[in-house]
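User: Assemble these into one structure.

Assistant: Restating your components, then the assembled model:
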Amino acid sequence: MKTFKLGGIHPEENKISAQQPIEIVPIPQTVYIPVSQHLGAPAKPIVEKGDLVKTGQLIAKGDGFISANVHSSVSGKVVKVDEVVDYSGYRRQSIIIESDGDEWVETIDRTPDLKRECALEPKAIVDKINEMGIVGMGGATFPSHVKLSVPQGKKAEYLIINGVECEPYLTSDYRLMLERGREIMVGITILMKGLKVDKAMVGIENNKPDAVRLMKDLSSEFKGITVHALRVKYPQGAEKQLIKALVNREVPSGKLPIEVGCVVQNVGTAFAVYEAVQKNKPLFERIVTVSGKTVKKPSNLLARVGTSINDLIVVAGGLPEDTGKVISGGPMMGRALSNTGAPITKGTSGILVMSEKESKRKKTMNCIRCGRCLNVCAMGLEPFLLANLSENQSWEEAEAEHILDCMECGSCQYTCPSGRPLLDYIRVGKNKVAQIIRTRKN
Amino acid sequence: MTVSGSPHIYGDQTVKKIMWGVVIATLPAMLVSVWYFGIGAITTTAVAVLTCVIAEYLMRRYLLNEEHPDVSDGSAIITGMLLSFNVPSSLPWWQTMLGSIFAIGVAKISFGGLGRNLFNPALVGRVFLLISFPVNMTTWPVPLSNRWVLVDALTGPTPLGQLKEGLANGETIAALKVHLPSYQDMFMGQIGGSLGEVSAIAILIGGLYMLYRGIISWHIPVAYLTTVAVFSGILYLINPAHYIDPLFHLLAGGLMLGAFFMATDMVTSPMSHKGMLVFGLGCGLLTVMIRNWGAYPEGVSFAILIMNAFVPLINKGFKPKRFGEVTNG
């Protein structure tokens, strides 16, 4: 069975919400919609206090090429355009809308019928995806239209569809594949057309055998799409590792997947693309897994962007007594929240609740130079060394040791028997080195 | 609520588990040693372990000024066990004690404690004893004799000692073979030697246990043993009258103990798998060279200590393969 070669770990999967069908979260009274839910420049608000908006109406326009449109997720009245603390803990400009119901923009096709054929030209597809504010749904939230615009001189050969979901606990992609597999397939054909490729490969880890089987069956109805079961290994959902696993090509250090003729999109993105292009529906809702060992009712929820995380936790049975940590995302790469009132965004794949006991870090001891960190690093780096160099502020050496190749998957820190905060140091080093490189360019 | 950077979950390996795993892995060899050498094996090991643990506690408390030194990580116990494995079971207790204090104090604490030392503490202790008390350190009790009395055990040579002396007296291998112990005895451990090194099978069992538990990787033992086998095999093929066969080298002396327990000490061995192979290769070459052409009959301790000194260099020179380094055709 296929997988990537270098490094990797196998944390406990804990997919406890896997059997829960997607459930719709009630529309909240107030939504807080950040204008920056994507990588790149924040969108510019085009509504003001007092404006009436409909569900799906454009409320902030993408600013420049690497940016994304933002749409209202409810119908109602804009009460404020103000700074709100988002999931990262930073204050970000947000549009606050009080909802008065759920009246959708008329152009959105709300029928459940599957629409298979897409007559649009490649250029029109990319424009549509841009217009509908589609971003990478796996968590990185890179604007999708940018990925589909292949730079001059490069050629896309494969569309790689990421159905790996290698983070423990998360099951939103899994549920989506089971419940909306056909729509995902149509989304993939549209992405292929937009990208002008005739081959698409879907990678799914074999801890989801029913999803693999279903997607394989469905793929026979569509030309050029193949589905591949992958051996379970974290971080297989990382772009570079997935490409290595599926087509055995290595994206060079510091380069993008297009360098080896690949473009990677998440299954959630493929579904959003289907809705955007075939149904004219902008990206204003998504599936969020709410899970954790102490959570009463682990769930997969379809929630409107801007709904507060608290609201989602309530649907999943409320915040347990001894909660020590709430994480946006999975346990390996997710971000611990300081404020559960923060809204969910286009990139929120899961909310993970951890008990007081689970939240504690391991006791830190001296490095015993066991080398485990370097054997699990999927990028072939030396985490202990990078952490040391950062600790000693040897930025140039850290750069020479490829600190920027680190994708912060956390495998090193997970594995360290001495409980050393390797990634904490590496993160500091990465920021500093990136900053130094920027000043060098200026 | 706690806010901390990712990752938020941890694997189940801890320093404590790793160290205690090594302690468990030493038990087969320990049992065999008690069977062959009796009470001496027990007292020597007990003295070494106790001294190492107490020395580690006191030195960390009063020299490194740690408020609550936690010696339960098991690393001092390993040093004690392995030091006792590397000395004759008849060694006077106070010499064992001195060696233990030297191992912990000079080889470990003076570098800053756990994880910071450059050389394997147990081997440093052994070499210190060998230089300080050469007679006691090369007097080997005969297995199965006088096991349960404390005085005047029968003593005899080690196979490697016999070999070295015989060759120095101009004898040929064929003539020496008559007096050397059988391979079966060497495999089971019924030979003269250090307390824990005699039984190849017991050490193999411990080594396989460590491999199974993921405490060590195969790279160092395999590289080490293969190099010894190949190198001594080449010499044997060139001149079988003067160089003994590779199987003898594999089973004799401290090679098995060294390859599985001493050279694999993670603190003093390289980090990357490539580096580990190079390290094992170096250990193997040096061991065969010292055994055949050096002043001492056995070279495992020196070989590993010399290679320990090269570890920082090996770590610099043999980095893991970076992802994306190869350009695609």
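The mean pLDDT of chain A is 94.
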